[in-house]
Amino acid sequence: MTYSFRDMVGKLRQQGHIEDIEKPVDIRHIAALVDKSEKALVFHNVNDYSMPVVSGIANGRERIGAAFDCAYSEVYKRLDAGLSNPIEPETINGGPVRDVVLTGDDVDLFELPVPLFSIHDGGPMITVGVTIAKTEDGSLNAGIYRFLVREKNLTGIDIVTPNDLQRLALAAFRKGEALPITINLGTHLAVNIGATYRAPLGLSELSIAGGMAGKAIRLTPGETSDVPCIADAEIVLEAEILPTGWTKPEGRFGEFTRLMGGLHWNPHVRVKAISMRKDAMYYALHMPWEVILPGAPNREAAVRRAFKLANLDLVDVNITPGGSCYFHAVVSIRKRPGDAKHAIMAALIASDIKHVVVVDEDIDVFNGTDVEWALATRVQADRDIVTIPDLRAKPLDPSLRIRPGITPVTTKCGIDATIPDDLPRERFERIEYAYADELDLSDYLGAAKGASTPTVDINVGDLAKRVNATLEKEPVYFAALSEMFEEEGFKALSRALGVLHSEGALWQDDKGRLCLAGSEFAAEPPPSI
């Protein structure tokens, strides 16, 4: 099996994750329809266009997992495999993307069904261009960028964020040269996720994608460029970033933050050739969720690797959708003294995470109510909130204060929501209902099938003596006593304890267990009483 967009679409269709739309549709309506759908959509009849449009492939966690034949919660393991065992791409001569090749005046971007997404967008925007460029040493750099369609063979490219492609474009610009690139549209999620990972120095994003797929990503030489393209892509634009500099405004566009971004000053891209499959599909990555959800495994893998290096016992991690699967992490650990603050530091440097909450292993990191409960009951602000100023920022963070000519920085924050080491653990014991694991409500629903259990005639004074003898040995919770004396019945036990209480014999230990007054177990009153 090839790891291609086409194979992925076919697999998702077989598993019921895709809805095929055969009726005519206005291209302006695509984004709203995808947003309303519980499945990915394939539009086969887009007015004025001959090419079908696919959107929403990665709008749901279940779909992302299905693309990798695993649960979404396991996708980070595929990425971790790509990082640990990368597979370099292989070059072939040809491939499906070379079925149709257009050059010269035949290059016409307006024939591609590029939808409009938001009412505030600056125009049709190509949203998932896996862009390949050659570095100074001839190795390949890959990343995903968006391109505003300006003319039939001209786009802008959004590289306002400092990254490798921006650095390469700036180096070419200073020489007055264009930077050759290929823009690959319609690639498997392994390629998309690998291309967006902040790869360590010396590690190619395409080799990470190969490691995720378990086989090499196939490349093929360009028609007009020495930069290769992905042989199994749906469409490839062979292009060059022009040495115009950052001189033209571009945007606005809906960002992964779920907010409208501002104008960006971006360079232009000249498209010299278009190659495609003979029955190509156009992939319109739907903003913001098709960016947000596939991005979570990237940051989860980074956090897990950082915790491993820091020798922290990580239980689970949630890169939260509420934080755009980018800014927020909730991590649970098996804590040793000092580990919580250490975990905060590890998570904040693992990726561009802005806020992290560290919780104990009893907290479900995917349950917002559980996490909030930990914040409410285990945090003292002066002791447990850590802030670190002047760190690298994501420019799309709308809360940043932007000053002309100054690269923005951010303040990161960590919250230690673990149980403090110096406080008694019994303060934090959760409510556990008696017999919760044994009872099934359905056994008690419907018409009564018999009379209630008759009351047993019990000598309460004798029972009080037996309970007293039990409590001489060790403190016991009431629930445990009720099991020890189950045959005598709950009411009789309560009466027996009442006898002991009236005699002044009954007391409790520091944990609230029943014991005898004056015994070694009995709790001492606080000094203020």
Describe this structure in words.
The chain folds into three domains: 5-285, Roll (Pnp Oxidase, Chain A); 310-426, UbiD C-terminal domain-like; 454-516, Arc Repressor Mutant, subunit A, CATH 1.10.10. The protein contains 14 helices and 23 strands. It has 529 residues and is α+β, with helices and mostly antiparallel strands. It has helices at residues 5-14, 30-36, 61-67, 75-84, 164-174, 189-196, 205-213, 289-309, 339-350, 368-378, 381-384, 460-473, 478-484, 490-502; strands spanning 18-21, 40-43, 53-55, 90-91, 100-103, 125-134, 140-151, 154-156, 179-185, 218-220, 229-230, 235-241, 248-250, 264-266, 268-276, 282-283, 314-319, 328-333, 355-360, 385-392, 409-417, 506-508, 514-516. The radius of gyration is 31 Å and the shape is elongated. The model has no long low-confidence stretch (mean pLDDT 89). The strands form six sheets. The chain has a six-stranded antiparallel barrel with strand order 6-7-8-15-12-9. Strands 17-18-19-21-20 form a five-stranded mixed sheet.
